Task: inverse folding
């Protein structure tokens, strides 16, 4: 909530569910354009900053296997997403976060970072974003990216147990 208010943005934490990301925590600044997203909302893994951050943090073999399954499920529609997924993963490898600049929704820009449990057994994802006229690429890549990466580091220890994050309250 503090991050959402500080940057006049929305911040969501999500976990994977098959080929989607499910929001498990969400905070919004009262000042932002409201999207119809809430705890329980599902976003396509291949079309969201949450999904891209999750995919980017997976071990190569696991990511490849998951992308093959997604490609099989999507069929011809996969071509719409393939380049964006590849670019997001490359950007993550270089900068530690992914951009989604109007890809999921033309009026929304966001970044995503993975939340990786100690030992790397669990991966969730955080996103922060808002209206594209306010959430510019430069703003997202600067203090917001730094803050979101720090928030991910703070949340990561809460993922250490074997049971899913949905069984815990992770306040942000």
Result:
């Amino acid at each position: 909530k503090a991050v959402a208010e500080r940057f006049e943005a929305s911040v969501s934490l999500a976990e994977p569910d098959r080929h989607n990301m499910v929001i498990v925590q969400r905070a919004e600044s009262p000042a932002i354009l409201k999207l119809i997203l809430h705890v329980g909302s599902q976003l396509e893994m291949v079309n969201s900053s949450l999904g891209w951050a999750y995919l980017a943090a997976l071990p190569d073999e696991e990511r490849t296997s998951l992308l093959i399954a997604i490609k099989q499920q999507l069929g011809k529609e996969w071509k719409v997403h393939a380049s964006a997924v590849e670019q997001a993963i490359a950007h993550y490898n270089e900068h530690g976060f992914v951009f989604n600049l109007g890809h999921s929704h033309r009026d929304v820009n966001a970044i995503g970072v993975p939340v990786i449990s100690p030992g790397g057994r669990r991966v969730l994802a955080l996103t922060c974003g808002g209206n594209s006229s306010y959430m510019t690429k430069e703003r997202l890549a600067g203090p917001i990216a730094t803050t979101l990466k720090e928030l991910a580091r703070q949340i990561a220890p809460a993922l250490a147990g074997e049971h899913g994050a949905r069984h815990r309250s992770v306040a942000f």
Observations:
- The radius of gyration is 15 Å.
- Residues 162-172 have pLDDT under 50 and may be disordered.
- The first strand starts at residue 10 and ends at 17.
